[in-house]
Amino acid sequence: MFNKILKRCPLLLFLLVFVGCQPLNNLSAPPKKTQNISHEFKDRLFIRSDNYLAGKAPIDTHEKRAYKYPKNYIIEGNKNTKKVALTFDDGPSIYTTKIIQKLNNYKIKATFFMVGNAIQSFPDLVKKIHNEGHLIANHSWDHTNANEHQYIDKYWQEQITSTNSLIKQLTGITPSLFRPPFGSTSEKIIEKLAENNINTIIWSIDTQDWNNNINTAQNIASIAIKHAHPESIILMHDGGGNRQGTVDALDEIIQYYQQLNYQFVTVDELIALH
Hints:
Elements: H1 2-8, H2 10-20, H3 24-28, H4 59-68, E1 73-74, E2 83-91, H5 96-106, E3 111-114, H6 116-119, H7 123-131, E4 135-138, H8 152-171, E5 177-178, H9 187-195, E6 199-201, E7 205-206, H10 217-226, E8 232-237, H11 244-259, E9 263-264, H12 267-272
Parallel strand pairs: 1-6, 2-3, 2-8, 2-9, 3-4, 5-6, 7-8
Helix pairs in contact: 5-11, 10-11
């Protein structure tokens, strides 16, 4: 019966012979296992926020610039190490001392983007912050929108150089980091800063602590925790208004990240990882 089938179906005979001639190890070898590859670099650099207000700068503009100026326009660290940078804008103020006390309780360091005219009111506090190992950076002289300045050189002198000079006078160090007020700037200013070895720093988590409608300690902590990710830069404020909610949110934020074995670093340390 089987012989009759083979005579009628020569193709079947050919297949049987072909298969029979194959090495047994090819037929019985198990499929190769896929190697697990650890992705050192992130696939995307962007701002995380539940209620981002485009306002001065559309959110996708930041992402595009992060790729156009990878060394000079920083949203977050580009690797996946468990590090996080707390940053505070618009100070110093009466709330800065409270924030420093919280940070010191946990023995962690943070970055303070200071406004020049506010520094004039708290020179001794600026010295104290620097001496305790926190990083002081530039946040303009009077918190004006960089895009409202028509002349780049004038903006450089009035907003950047003036603030850097005052910080150097008090600390002995000239800042190499600048955060534009409102996150609003132009590519010409980014390039001008880069030419002078100053990096533009944005953020990857906006806690919305500047938003008086939602800036309770619970909301601020919730946002910082919800969007936790490796090498994040967290935006908060120690000046520019009532910042008690920010002060009160710090315990929960810090404890959460520490439970996940994150290390708190200053922004310059985070950039050094690049």
